[in-house]
Design goal:
- The protein has about 300 residues and is mainly β.
- It has strands at about 10-15, 25, 40-45, 50-55, 60, 65-70, 70-75, 80, 95, 100-105, 115, 115-120, 125-130, 130-135, 140, 145-150, 155-160, 170-175, 180, 195-200, 210, 220-225, 230, 235, 245, 250, 255-260, 275-280, 280-285, 290, 295, 300, 305-309.
- The strands form 10 sheets. Strands 2-1-3-4 form a 4-stranded mixed sheet, with no helix packed on it.
- It is globular, with a radius of gyration of 18 Å.
Length: about 300
């Protein structure tokens, strides 16, 4: 994030799939500048998306993290808009309950974080890497190796095994008892394609090196679909020097291999939390096509036919 970026707004976009598919939610990335509007969208695997306005969060944020657990949407960190024009990661954490359309403040993060990979195993929420607040809480550090586990029942954070190297703007996914951290940037904000795995179900205390991305990139979208990790879009470089990518890569955990699939029709970045699997398709919602050029297009990918709509 640079000082040339637009003034943040706040928007939380949630979607509720129909046809009995479990509730999911996403923090939509509109250049990761959030608007005053909050919307609930309904998606099923074959019909159009519909939108409904729901309760706004109490403060504006940028480049935040979010995930769904037990039909609740958890929102972590992001840039603290009360400290603008400085770029300072916030520690604030909230949970949104769609049943009563209300937000609740939770325990603050140990450190303010943006650009962190986030996932859940159905019991805990994990986040890895990211831009963290500096010691004086007046600015940011462009990567960290820290990995944290949040317990929503106890409302506490626990540090777990750190990444092998400091990273930010990468992806974290949980599959079959394993955490996978993929891509992103280092402390110098250089693109990295590393792929590391931590077997948390097996009690592992070290990350294992897995096959890397063929095209290292940052600010990509990712999701797990039918036991495989899909990694889409992203970018090379930062801010005005960004070059947005249209690659779609899939990682097969059975063969430990990456395969390149059909490109997304238009390049996208800043889609880390707006790439989701619903039914038989993967949706990529909004994002940036170029630096500060936000798009509202929704793309749907069908893995069975390797096609986009």
């Amino acid at each position: 994030m640079s000082s040339s970026s637009p003034i943040p707004r706040k928007m939380i976009l949630l979607y509720r799939p129909l046809m009995g598919i479990a509730l999911t939610a996403i923090l939509i990335v509109i250049s990761l500048h959030l608007s005053e509007m909050v919307a609930l969208a309904s998606i099923d695997d074959s019909t159009a998306i519909t939108w409904t306005t729901v309760a706004s969060q109490s403060y504006g944020s940028l480049e935040a993290q979010g995930t769904v657990l037990n039909s609740l949407f958890y929102f972590f960190g992001g840039y603290d808009t009360t400290k603008r024009p400085n770029w300072v990661p916030s520690r604030r954490t909230y949970v949104y309950n769609p049943t009563n359309n209300a937000w609740t403040r939770l325990a603050d993060m140990p450190k303010g974080v943006t650009h962190s990979g986030m996932t859940t195993d159905g019991r805990y929420i994990y986040y890895a890497g990211g831009y963290t607040e500096n010691a004086s809480q007046t600015g940011q550090i462009f990567a960290t190796s820290e990995v944290w586990r949040y317990d929503p029942i106890a409302n506490i954070y626990t540090a777990i095994t750190a990444l092998p190297q400091a990273r930010a703007s990468g992806s974290l996914q949980y599959v079959n008892g394993e955490l996978h951290f993929i891509g992103g940037t280092n402390l110098q904000r250089q693109d990295r394609g590393d792929h590391w795995m931590l077997n948390i179900a097996g009690g592992a205390t070290q990350w294992v090196v897995e096959p890397a991305l063929a095209n290292p990139r940052n600010h990509a979208g990712s999701t797990v679909h039918q036991g495989m990790i899909y990694y889409v879009g992203g970018s090379h470089g930062q801010d005005p020097n960004v070059t947005t990518q249209n690659d779609l890569s899939v990682y097969n955990l059975q063969t430990n291999t990456w395969t390149e699939l059909a490109d997304i029709p238009s390049p996208r970045n800043h889609i880390s939390a707006s790439t989701v699997s619903v039914g038989n398709r993967i949706f990529v919602i909004a994002g940036d096509e170029k630096f500060n050029w936000t798009r509202k297009t929704i793309f749907a990918y069908t893995p069975a036919t390797n096609t986009w709509a």
